[in-house]
Design a protein that fits this description.
336 residues, alpha/beta, eight-stranded parallel β-barrel, two-stranded antiparallel ribbon, binds NADP nicotinamide-adenine-dinucleotide phosphate
Amino acid sequence: MYTPSSTRYSEMQYARCGRSGLLLPRLSLGLWHNFGNITPFDTQQSILRTAFDHGITHFDLANNYGPPYGEAERNFGIHMDRDWHTHRDELIISTKAGYDMWEGPYGNFGSRKYLIASLDQSLRRMHLDYVDIFYHHRPDPDTPMEETMGALDHIVRSGKALYVGISNYTAEQTARAVSILHDLGTPLLIHQPRYNMLDRWIEDGLTDVLADCGVGAIVFSPLAGGRLTGKYRHGIPDDSRISHDPRYLRADMITDALGTATDALTEIAKARGESLPQLALQWVLRSPVITSALIGASRPQQIIENIGVLRFPDLSDAELEAIETILSTYQSEVAL
Ligand SMILES: NC(=O)c1ccc[n+]([C@@H]2O[C@H](COP(=O)([O-])OP(=O)(O)OC[C@H]3O[C@@H](n4cnc5c(N)ncnc54)[C@H](OP(=O)(O)O)[C@@H]3O)[C@@H](O)[C@H]2O)c1
């Protein structure tokens, strides 16, 4: 029997998601890794409990998180039954559809057929009546955006999701999605793009669109999957993502340029009394457009360390400038 910490709301900060009424925690927890069939159930449970005990009220999933596809949602359904149904109204649970999920022409991309069927499957796997946020996971070049947004609008009206979001859409695609959804009467709540010190594509137009349209942003992989923690500085540790689940993060993504950059960033973090992951999180949260940083964790201690970022003061202009210099040197070396 799980009894959440009575101090769970004392440490976390909550930010308004765009111009909506919804508050999200500044750090949210994603279940992309560490919730499939290669992670012990007890580990999953202690990650979720630790997150909630520290005020992380938002858990993010997708239809194909695993391995295998669907497994993170299936496991989450068991966690729901054991720990979370009694706290359902304290939680924001999201899922997505847009990548390959099942065989044949209806299990991928952005048709109305796929999105509605996929959400029905997700709800069954997670033992939920509704999700708080349903996302279209990536833009579909071949389905008219009116159809995809029409499906999102229908999903909200049918009560299966309270809000809708999009993920990985460009600035231009986002502006169109906002406009179509606005005309349908279902506002776009949130965008979920990748954003971290190594990948700053959203600064090139997307953040302006989100600010102008009053749409929130929850940024994924703020630690670049672990590359911004310093853990790979002296090789690949056995208990790291690259060792235990190298589906997306590979050893060839650990470069000398990354090592030089993380060494220099670590010096800035140390001078502030922080760890490198805390500095990396603070950096993504510096922009008022960013509602929440969507972290992953392979163990509870990482969540506790990462939440510690909220105790530190904002980065000064001088620190931001020093970080900028390190990141532009890194980018020019990567571009060579
Ligand atoms: N919309 C999309 O297309 C999309 C795509 C990707 C992700 N996402 C979402 O974003 C979430 C987070 O992505 P992510 O897992 O790549 O985020 P991340 O926060 O960049 O990386 C998390 C990983 O870094 C390591 N880590 C975290 N804190 C640490 C610490 N304090 N010290 C040392 N290592 C630490 C852990 O890996 P190890 O300990 O295993 O090394 C952890 O699993 C996903 O779960 C998912 O919800 C969305």
